[in-house]
Amino acid sequence: MAGRKNRNAELRIPEILEAYYRVLIDEGLEGTSISKIAKSIDIHPSLILHYFQNKDNLRAALIELIVSKFKSRHLINFDHIEDDQERFDALMDMIFSYEWSRTVDPGVHFGFYYQSFRDEHVHKLFTDMFVWFRDFLHDQFVDFNRKGVIQVSDEVKAADFVLTMMEGLEFHAHFLAGDNPFEDFAQSCKKTAYTILKNRGV
């Protein structure tokens, strides 16, 4: 009996979190409710409460899922590329791509980002996520710097710079881009990053 319950939970919990994510995209944080989530996958709201107890726990579980999705290395793992310059180019292409920017829906991402100012647990989850990515970039830049692909004096600052520029792409796309494609400004940012990373700009 316990085994069946565990299997049910393994199936139901991801399904509920995926439904929560989809409802958030459609309704926003303010318009999302447990009843709407339940209705979207044709279950009773009490089942969601059974697994998560309350909406705060449900939110925390989704944020943790989003963070784990962001931290998945399958999109930024280029170890199969032997040439150092080509591997660096592939990394930068991905970081400044629309695909990477939309790893998580921006409305959901920035909705939770807003909550990080008021909720210490959310703040910690986001901090851990960005520190993880900064550390990943730092390690990459140390390797590329050692091999002469880039020339930087401070790999930590270089990682901070690229991460901050990457995050700013969505702000630009939402507020300043107008009818211009996302890729236009992203390419400009990537060129700027190349110039700085290859000429001891940091």
UniProtKB/TrEMBL annotation:
Q: Which residues bind DNA?
A: 33-52
Transit peptide as UniProt keyword: no
Q: Cross-referenced Gene3D superfamilies, in alphabetical order?
A: Tetracycline Repressor, domain 2 (1.10.357.10)
* PROSITE patterns the record matches: HTH_TETR_2 (PS50977)
Domain (HTH tetR-type) spans 10-70
Write one Gene Ontology MF term.
DNA binding
Q: Where are the transmembrane segments?
A: none
Which keywords does this chain's UniProt record carry? DNA-binding, Transcription, Transcription regulation
Q: What does this protein do?
A: Represses transcription of the icaADBC operon necessary for biofilm production.
Give the multimer and partner information. Answer: Homodimer.
What is this protein's name? Biofilm operon icaADBC HTH-type negative transcriptional regulator IcaR
